[in-house]
Design goal:
This protein is about 30% helix and about 30% strand. The protein is an alpha+beta fold and about 550 residues long. The strands form six sheets. Strands 1, 2, 8, 9, 10, 11, 19 and 20 form an eight-stranded mixed sheet that branches. It has a seven-stranded mixed sheet with strand order 6-5-14-15-16-13-17, sandwiched between helices. It is globular, with a radius of gyration of 24 Å.
């Protein structure tokens, strides 16, 4: 394990840009080689946009950090070309259990229906995630893509000049400057880029602390999410247990507000807490310990001229519900195809305002759910605690009370209802796959629908003919017909047709539905593409 942390994945190397008499120009610079920055860079490279990633580090992050990755981000990773490696290493789970005191209150299945390529969740330490993304970076470089990751390149200054952005970078060999058309800041919760531009967050900071411990141990706990309210080993607090690869278990223990963080992180204080939970005879080794105080906040806007913010640099939520890295991947998924069209001159710059609109919708939804989870987990008054405990007691016996229990509403993808990019919606078709919704997977013959879509506009005719290709003023739309014969188990019918015999769906490059109809019409498709790219001035 130590080799992963000690070996530079993207070691410092002197660049020719450092010797240039004037700042070298690049189309896009990404700040941050964490999961979100690398995902943005990979997506750009797959769209043939040259990109440079700069980071003041040169290794993977220490500790598990983000570990729970939901189904939709897994599908995004498939589109980025690294989903299999991720899922093969990770711990797959769909089932969760909720405990109150020593009693199991109930359990839930996050993906009870069949017909999906990916599971509800996969657990994987963030250091593996970053490593696998770098594998994909190397593969794209081998394919000849212009994608470079520069370690020990710390951004020290940002200056917007109107049509470009000037970036000052510090290295072990001194400073240099770069110029870019677009700067994407994926530099995390403390975001130096945000501070350099005098931007701030709005929202709430929660007065509570949680201990994270990555524990290496042999244990026979099932591969499930276990959450405790008021357990005997952590009275009047909460606890969470997750399995990770390589016999690593993630344990979260609520500590309260008035604590000495440095004291609580010491092994002599952590180990007794863990033994109280796992048993005095439990054999384990501490791999990583941290204490976090969380907040539910976001920037007022994610786009500031030619500087775009994504991931934790743009928004932060509590860890309950696995919304951090999952929402960050959905940020880049939303942003990059739009930026590609703008760079190519095929869409107006105003299309990027829809990134603000759609991802702020997602951030607000995540913040709302995360705040509600935190308020339920950590009641702020005796009345709130009495209500919560009554709900937990009822949930043990009555199913109607279980939706009221909130141990962290788990991450679900955003549906961009009311987005200015949404086109025609034939409401006779199932609401689950309406415009603005992400693809709902289904088997298609020997393939999966999610594997047939992405990185381009795609027209799908289900039981009806559509053209194999269509040029909409320079934007290529690929067409594909799917028949009921390829839908042996009826999943496609249920999710995309409902009671109808046929339908036509237009998908965006990020696999969200742009528009849908019962019957094909070329004029309608052209209008929907123009709407989805902001060329009808709807963005």
């Amino acid at each position: 394990m130590s080799k992963i942390f000690e070996t530079p994945l993207y070691p410092y190397q002197r660049s020719v840009d450092q010797d240039a008499p004037q700042p070298a120009h690049h189309p896009v610079i990404v700040i941050g080689a964490g999961p979100i920055g690398l995902a943005a860079a990979i997506d750009l490279a797959q769209h043939d946009v040259p990109v440079i990633v700069v980071d003041d580090n040169d290794k993977v992050s220490w500790g598990s950090r983000a570990i729970c990755y939901a189904k939709r981000p897994l599908e995004i990773l498939d589109r980025l070309g690294c989903g299999d490696e991720f899922v093969d290493k990770g711990v797959v789970w769909n089932l969760g259990k909720v405990f109150f005191d020593e009693r199991k209150i109930y359990e839930f299945d996050l993906l009870p229906e069949e017909g999906h390529k990916r599971p509800a969740f996969v657990n994987l330490q963030q250091y593996h995630f970053e490593e696998y993304l770098m594998h994909r970076v190397r593969a794209l470089q081998d394919e000849g893509k212009t994608l470079e990751v520069r370690g020990k390149n710390r951004v020290a200054g940002i200056e917007e000049t109107g049509d470009t952005v000037l970036v000052t970078i510090d290295t072990p060999e001194g400073s240099y400057r770069l110029e870019c058309d677009w700067l994407i800041a994926c530099d995390g919760a403390t975001s130096p880029a945000r501070k350099m531009l005098n931007m701030d967050f709005v929202g709430r900071v929660f007065e509570d602390n949680f201990l994270i411990a990555d524990v290496i141990m042999e244990a026979d706990f099932p591969t499930e999410r276990w959450f405790w309210f008021d357990p005997p080993f952590n009275r009047n607090q909460s606890a969470l247990l997750h399995k990770q690869p390589d016999h690593v278990w993630r344990i979260d223990l609520q500590l309260g507000w008035n604590i000495d963080k440095e004291e609580e992180k010491k092994p002599e204080n952590v180990i007794p807490r863990l033994k109280a939970m796992l048993g005095e005879d439990a054999k384990f080794e501490l791999e990583w310990v941290s204490i976090y105080t969380f907040q539910c906040r976001r920037m007022e806007k994610f786009r500031h001229g030619r500087v775009l913010f994504a991931g934790d640099s743009a928004h932060q939520v509590s860890p309950f519900g696995a919304r951090g890295a999952n929402s960050g991947l959905q940020d880049t998924d939303n942003l990059i195809w739009k930026l590609k069209l703008v760079i190519d001159g095929k869409a107006p710059e105003s299309l990027l305002d829809s990134y603000d609109y759609e991802r702020i919708l997602g951030a607000n939804e995540n913040i709302m759910n995360s705040t509600r989870s935190t308020d339920f987990i950590t009641p702020k008054s005796e009345v709130s605690r009495t209500f919560r405990d009554a709900v937990l007691d009822l949930a043990e016996r009555y199913e109607f009370a279980r939706p009221l229990v909130n141990s962290g509403r788990l991450s679900v993808p955003s549906v961009y209802d009311s987005s200015p990019l949404n086109g025609n919606d034939d409401r006779d078709l199932p609401p689950r796959t309406r415009p603005g919704a992400p693809v709902v997977d289904a088997p298609v013959g020997s393939n999966w629908l999610t594997d047939l879509l992405g990185n381009r506009f795609q027209l799908i005719g289900i039981n009806t003919e559509v053209p194999a290709s269509l040029d909409v003023d320079g934007i290529a739309v690929e067409g594909m017909r799917i028949s009921s014969a390829e839908d042996a188990d009826g999943h496609l019918q249920k999710r995309y047709l409902g009671a109808e015999d046929q339908a036509v769906y237009l998908f965006r490059p990020d696999q969200h539905v742009a528009a849908r109809w019962i019957d094909y019409s070329e004029n309608a498709v052209r209008a929907a593409v123009n709407t989805a790219t902001g060329r009808d001035q709807g963005a």
